[in-house]
Task: structure prediction
Amino acid sequence: MKYVIQEHHASRLHWDLRLEHKGVLKSWAIPKEPSNDPEIKRLAIEVEDHELDYADFEGMIPEGEYGAGKVKIWDSGTFDAIEFTDSKVDFAIYGKKLKGHFHLIRFKKAGPKNWLFFRAKED
Result:
């Protein structure tokens, strides 16, 4: 399944994590650059789903449109879902920059759209 992280220079720089799931790209905005270090956990804010072909998008979103700014692919590849529920996503990433087992865990205390994104510690 498709995996991509797009570096998005909108009103604030962030990284958009997108995972193919049930015919769409499930999407999260990550305010700080993703990391391969399992000690670093990143906030990931759930945003609207995108169409699958958006995984290849690079370019400018015009001023006045939602998300206006430059978008470039930061990392891409495939992933295998180990678990994909409404509150937890465990998956293996096979990207160019990120590789390995990662988690997305819904962080309910911080709000319904807030998740934590981090690499699993190796066993």
Summary: The mean pLDDT is 95. Residues 75 and 97 are 6 Å apart (CA to CA).
